[in-house]
Amino acid sequence: MGTLVLLFSCLILLVSPKHTREKRTPNRPNIVLITADDLGYQDVGFRGSDILTPNLDQLADSGVVLENHYVMPQCSPTRASLMSGRYPIRTGFWHGNIKPGEEWGLELEETTMAEMLQRNGYRTHGVGKWHCGMYTWQHTPLHRGFDSFFGLYLGSQDYFDHDRMKSLDLRMNYRSPNGSVVDQVRGDLKGRYNTDMFTERAVSIISSHDHSRPLFLYLAYTAPHSPFQATKSDLKRYSGHMTATPFQSGASLRRRTYATMVSVMDRGIGEVVSALKQQNLSDNTIIVFLSDNGAMFGGPGSNYPLRGGKQSLFEGGVRGVAVVNSPLLKTTGYVNTNLHHVTDWYVTFQTLARDYTEQTDKPQLELDGVNIWRSISQNKSSGRNEVLLNMKLTDKMSRRRNDPQNESRRVSKSKKITELGPNLIESNLSNGSTSGYHGFRPDLEPQSNDFIGSVDPREGTNETPPHQFNEHNDFFVLRSGKWKLFAGKYTTQTWTSKNAVYEVLPLHKVGKGASVGRGVRLFDLSTDPREVLNLAAAHPEVVRQLMGRIRGYAGKMVPIGRRVSNAYEARKLGVWYPWVPTNPDSQPVLL
């Protein structure tokens, strides 16, 4: 009889929905999201670089390397998509970076990753680079879901003086016991190397973390973004093994300084991993490392063997370094070749946090990311076959000034263009390149007269859309399956040498390593990841099919306001402060 009662009790527990959910769903994992700034595709040890990155190599060896992880070609657009889970065409970042003093940022109606995790019980901490807007206090990290923030609001700074345009940009933000935001400017830290300070803050957060709540740590290093700076002791320690380049000693010093910056960041990552282990947090922690874009083309970083770099939509600019490491992964020690995008992290973390958007007060805007956890953990399909790398439509660029009091006006549905006209350009079939390519040839660049002609994406329909794709100003770049399409007018760059041996390429000067490309290019990335052979002439049907995707993406695109700049007002006190008044409740206590 006792045995029957016991079996009956077990049966009740097994069919209980609450019991089933608790048994099937583990505790919410801790998430440590680490970003590098302008890191070259090749500039890590596990890709054969001469730069020392033993800690990243260990994470890669015992974790998963994401070979096809796409980002945006610049800092702000990648960070906005990372935080929101949405393409730049939705967030307004399709036109590029936020420059110092500009009055715009990630819209307040957007739910950030930190907000989403915070509402699910996470302790949320930001360290390092923000670069998602600072012209009002409401755009700064503590009003975007972070419990604390230590770092810079802008996109770069001097690594020792912590200034930009001779004004300080380093602060600690936290909430006082009464809930007020405290803004503590840290001029007292002048002379300290910022990569080390960011590591120290991250380790401090981990060491003092309350284990009863899950942790979200966003550690956004500025390394190895310019200016290229390092301490003399670190330079000797981390770059003494590197050989000189065939060019002037100054170029060699830049490469060695860049390499040292990467190695110091790697050292910090090792300290973060050690802190997680010491605090017994590592068993339930997911570590994600990624770069926001490729290395600057023509500079000391290397995107070898890929084409192009930062500010271009070629692979060297948008296929970033990415590594995932966690005991929660079911399959490790391999290179994952599935298609992933930076927007996917929002949805993935949302799923792991068991977020229920229907129970939130703030509406969840439509997301572009997909849950890639099974793809990474089990090497299953990611469910993604397409990535919009970016597009530009000139008639989405308004001359009207942004209104910080009501930013939603900028996303007026009445201004969305849902249809496109017939004047799309295609490479001339008779001029399409069919030549082969082998080896490093920085001088190999198709001529602009390769691209003429037109194609109607509405072929087979009765649509007569009023809008025209302007090949002289607009562009559209898409990866779909193995294909990658360029159309319109876009930045064109060539190839980077291995370990940046040829730091200054023969045809380009540093800082001016780009030309303008026009027309259509089609690459088969499964056989041509270096983007050498233009197949548009050989596959006009693929061009037409991919061109047809423009209409759908244009319908989701938000217009952008005029980029008003008021840098003087933002830094008139010698410190960068938000300068546009908004809700008085968002004003911090200044220390």
What does this structure look like?
- With 591 residues, the protein is an alpha/beta fold.
- Helix 8 (232-239) packs across helix 9 (249-278).
- The chain is built from 15 helices and 20 strands.
- It is 23% helix and 18% strand.
- It has helices spanning 2-15, 17-24, 54-61, 75-84, 88-91, 113-118, 194-207, 232-239, 249-278, 315-318, 344-352, 373-378, 540-547, 550-554, 567-570, and strands spanning 30-36, 64-70, 123-129, 148-152, 163-164, 167-168, 171-175, 181-185, 215-220, 285-291, 322-325, 334-341, 386-392, 397-401, 475-480, 483-492, 515-518, 521-524, 560-562, 589-590.
- The chain has an eleven-stranded mixed sheet with strand order 12-2-11-10-1-9-3-4-7-8-20, sandwiched between helices. Strands 13, 15, 16, 17 and 18 form a five-stranded antiparallel sheet that branches.
- The longest helix is centred in the middle third of the chain and has 30 residues, at 249-278.
- A hairpin with a 2-residue loop joins strand 15 and strand 16.
Q: Span between N and C termini?
A: 72 Å
* Overall mean pLDDT: 82
Strand content: 15-25%
SS-based structural class? alpha/beta
Number of strands: 20
Give the overall silhouette.
globular
Keywords:
591 residues; alpha/beta; eleven-stranded mixed β-sheet; five-stranded antiparallel β-sheet; 20 strands; 23% helix
Compact summary:
The protein is an alpha/beta fold. Helix content is 23%, strand content 18%. It is globular and about 65 Å long.
Helix and strand layout, with pairings?
Elements: H1 2-15, H2 17-24, E1 30-36, H3 54-61, E2 64-70, H4 75-84, H5 88-91, H6 113-118, E3 123-129, E4 148-152, E5 163-164, E6 167-168, E7 171-175, E8 181-185, H7 194-207, E9 215-220, H8 232-239, H9 249-278, E10 285-291, H10 315-318, E11 322-325, E12 334-341, H11 344-352, H12 373-378, E13 386-392, E14 397-401, E15 475-480, E16 483-492, E17 515-518, E18 521-524, H13 540-547, H14 550-554, E19 560-562, H15 567-570, E20 589-590
